[in-house]
Amino acid sequence: xxxxxxxxxTKLLLDVMFFAGIAVIVTxxxxxxxxxxxxxxxxxxxxxxxxxxxxxGILAELxxxxxRRMFRTVLANDCFVxxxxxxxxxxGTYSFLIALVTAGRMVLYLxxxxxxxxxxxxxxxxxxxxxxxVFDRAVAYKLENDLTI
Length: 149
Hints:
By secondary structure, this protein is mainly α.
């Protein structure tokens, strides 16, 4: 019972994050313009920040999209499939690209938070790439086992 609740809550969270992310990306020009009235740095680098945040946001949406695709296999009780290997591999690439885009922001403005975000996404990228290899082996073992039976 608790497992089913956790699965439903996780699916709901992924869905909410995915659609909220789309809303955030679409409203970026307005929200950055409004925040520019509070923080002059955002007004000064308006175009650059829109590009950086939009690219990072799109890459984050792609990660959420892959997670939602993988979650469907969890719901179907069939996690060890080639599609999940590819999804994990793509998520690793997207994470590295977010780190790279965020590193580009260091040219405009360097803060400790930027360094932490870069580190988090590099670690997430490495984790996803390694996990894709683990899943690849698991898929191979599963297919071999299925053939044996």
